[in-house]
Amino acid sequence: MSFEETAGDVAIRVCDVSKHFLLFDRPQDRLKQSIVPRLQRLVGRPPTRYYRDFAALSGVSFEVRRGETVGIVGRNGSGKSTLLQVVCGTLRPNAGSVAVNGRIAALLELGAGFNPEFTGRENVYLNAAILGLSREETDARFDDIARFADIGDFIGQPVKTYSSGMYVRLAFATAINVDPDILVVDEALSVGDEAFQRKCFARIEQIQERGGTILFVTHSAQLVVQLCSRALLMDRGELIMDGKPKAVVSNYQKLLNLSGTEAAVRRAAILATKQPGNEPYANALATGTVGRPDSPSAPGCGGDSNEDFDPCLVSKSAVAYVQQGASIHNLGITTPSGRRVNILRSGRRYVLDYRVDFHSDSTDVIFGMQVKTMSGVVLGGANTSHRREMQVRRAKSGDQLIVRFDFQCVFLPGVYAIDVGALGQVDGDVRFLHRILDATVFRVAPEANTLNFGHIGIDAKLTIRADGASTAPSCPTDVDESAQGI
Ligand SMILES: Nc1ncnc2c1ncn2[C@@H]1O[C@H](COP(=O)(O)OP(=O)(O)OP(=O)(O)O)[C@@H](O)[C@H]1O
Q1: Cα–Cα distance measured from residue 36 to residue 25, given in angstroms and rounded to the nearest whole number
Q2: pTM of this prediction?
Q3: Which tens digit of pLDDT belongs to each residue from 269-295?
Q4: Residue 366 belongs to a domain with what CATH number?
Q5: Which of 35, 81, 234, 469 has its CA 20 to 30 A from that of 481?
Q6: Same domain for 205 and 353?
Q7: Which residue, judged by its Cα, is nearest atom 5 of ligand 1?
Q8: ipTM of the predicted structure?
Q9: Is 357 a domain residue?
Q10: Spans of the chain below 70 pLDDT
Q11: Does 474 contact ligand 1 (Cβ within 6 A)?
Q12: Residue 30 burial by Cβ neighbours in a 10 Å radius (0-12, 13-18, 19+)
């Protein structure tokens, strides 16, 4: 019996799949490899190898059930795209098997599936035919596809003249308008502009609602938590974790911040959770109680994505200005009860504090902090320049002061940097006594069921009511964001 007949509710079955690539150090080695070993065999000599064997995937197994949305995360080069290509049949595995139950539409790397010489229109027909649609079926959907892609007259131009954004628009429009049973997407969404991305998410939700299966690769932790029912963590060609999006994303983010040995230790700890009989360890890893520096079995870095301290999440771009009268030390973020954290929850209050050691007599000292995105956009901050009563009139050389900013984490999931500084007068000159850019970083943990997007939470509360005589809407009303714990 075929896989389709026996699959039941399994949409994708990947069984012990391995994929190897031959790596040649020099172009001429590829040529040598195709000639020399054959000749050597002919004369009865052992063949020379001119390549290195590289395992992009090793023994990967998992199943995706119908209706599941599964996100694949992992560091660069961990094998995510190779895995998707094997699932879609564009790459043949060296070992293992892949079975797919249903019509699969794929958005793999840019360009895959499109002939650059053909027009957009011709490519739509070509792709739809590959996905099993007849000409008449494609005729019936073409206007929807063209409207969704929204690339105007370019639909009649060869796709080699398209920008990468236009390319993705047309590829996505085609893939999702052929009503696939399974949609496979490789980061393609990040290329379109924001309006197009929203349109795509709306369509993805439609596919989810009608029971479609989605497998996608992304580097966005938020997207995984928001869209997926399950997530897979790939590392060095192996599937090292398969579980709830939050737990998987949390381990992925920790791996990202780790260097070689620490990453290997953390990886081993994650892999250990896959061994049968290791459930307590698996639970601890998922909830973040494994891996704290003071834990005897600490794999280096720990904490869950909800509110914790990840010792590996450190600023790699700190710039300390020359000290001109003071120095800033011991900067950190704590909860109101004094617990050190760098993984924060949106909507909660925290304390940023630091110690200022004065090396010169200073007057009218102002303290400040500001929060920035990792690309340097200042989102907000606080300083005492307009609060004379909070300024330090006079500090003597040798004085030490602790500065505390009690603030609300209005930031949405992502990683942010903090600048701090102290400004004052020394010998009649106003100057930065000390200033540190990107002094520390923190991460805001991903949240499910949120209305918010962007960097700042606007504490939105949504109410939808039927307008007068019209019928009641079918969506839930009075969605109270605060009740969902932003
Ligand atoms: N055709 C190929 N020939 C040789 N090596 C390849 C080939 N395709 C992929 N690889 C290697 O296989 C490994 C996995 O690549 P893959 O693109 O699947 O990783 P990825 O997790 O999708 O990475 P990224 O997040 O950077 O897109 C990488 O080391 C890559 O260099």
Answers
A1: 16
A2: 0.66
A3: 888 776 544 443 344 444 433 333 333
A4: 2.70.50.60
A5: 469
A6: no
A7: 21
A8: 0.96
A9: yes
A10: 1-7, 109-112, 188-192, 194, 274-307, 469-486
A11: no
A12: middle
